[in-house]
Specification:
alpha+beta; about 300 residues; 8 helices
């Protein structure tokens, strides 16, 4: 699993230590009869109370995790598009949850019955790919929040858009990756990334593009159901499709379980969660790019992608 790259300030660390004393000594925070959601909400309330009664040092940040809101999957055009796609293997109406299931039991059930890679078509010699819904870099606060990330599984196994560009555009992988431009005032609807090499050093070069060159792309979306997050479980789907007619080429569905982390204020730490699928033998931890290499292989593609 990848590690967080953020280093909190001294004021933040001091605040977190103070909050930990209040939160982790609270009665029943990790009680056996409580759900992950119940423990999380208790922890958030304790954080709010502690920040409200404690005198903060100048410049100290307190309770940022408690200020976060649940992710809105339909807040963006890309999100609405992702959730509008009909796939050949839709989720069953009955997830299989039964009253009294523990988080571990429900997670194991989802891994057995719903998780996996489903490939419907492969296309050879693909030189470029369209990243249809780039992921933003998650903050530590979001990674400690039960609801702030739409698709924690996809984020943990894929990373942010920056990670994606670095892995997709390199020797043995794709020649270019494209994204929709966030600024089309100049008439360029897309951004195209290619690699420039100086000795062994690689630099990604971005250029504006009016026309999309990629025939195939991929998009992600979270899975939202009544019992999943309450039990500390989050699911996500990655969909590979034809950009011309939106034909679905492949689907990867996975799940992640958190909520058993005792040394975090909220009990949640998605980077340390249990995941499924975990990848096939001989493949890397970057499941997204392993799948793309099988479904849309460039002329020369190393599916292991080790050491990157």
């Amino acid at each position: 699993m990848k590690q967080s790259r953020r280093m909190p300030s001294l004021f933040v660390i001091a605040g977190l230590l103070s909050l930990a004393l209040v939160t982790l000594t609270g009665a029943g925070l990790f009680g056996k009869d409580e759900t992950v959601g119940e423990r999380f909400r208790k922890a958030i309330e304790k954080i709010k109370q502690s920040c409200g009664i404690r005198r903060l040092a100048p410049g100290e940040v307190c309770g940022e995790v408690a200020k976060l809101k649940p992710a809105d999957p339909l807040a963006t055009v890309e999100g609405r598009f992702a959730h509008s796609i009909k796939i050949p293997n839709p989720l069953p109406e009955d997830s299989g949850y039964r009253s009294g299931m523990t988080s571990e039991q429900y997670f194991d059930h989802l891994c057995r019955t719903e998780a996996g890679e489903f490939i419907y078509k492969t296309v050879e010699n693909v030189e470029g790919i369209f990243m249809m819904r780039p992921r933003k870099e998650a903050t530590d606060w979001e990674l400690e929040h039960l609801y702030a990330l739409e698709d924690p599984y996809g984020y943990v196994t894929e990373g942010s858009a920056e990670t994606g560009r670095e892995l997709l555009v390199r020797p043995g992988a794709y020649v270019f990756v494209e994204e929709r431009s966030s600024d089309i005032t100049k008439g360029a609807a897309y951004r195209r990334y290619t690699a420039k090499y100086n000795s062994d050093k690689k630099t990604l070069v971005r250029e504006d593009a009016e026309v999309l060159e990629s025939r195939y792309g991929y998009v992600w979306r979270g899975i939202a159901r009544p019992h999943d997050r309450e039990l500390g479980i989050a699911g996500g789907e990655l969909i590979v499709l034809d950009t011309k007619n939106h034909e679905v080429v492949a689907v990867r569905r996975g799940f992640i379980r958190s909520g058993d982390v005792h040394n975090r204020l909220t009990g949640i730490w998605w980077l340390g969660g249990h995941t499924c699928p975990r990848g096939k033998p001989g493949r890397s931890d970057f499941y997204t790019y392993d799948l793309l290499g099988e479904v849309l292989p460039p002329p020369s593609f190393n599916v292991e992608m080790k050491g990157h």
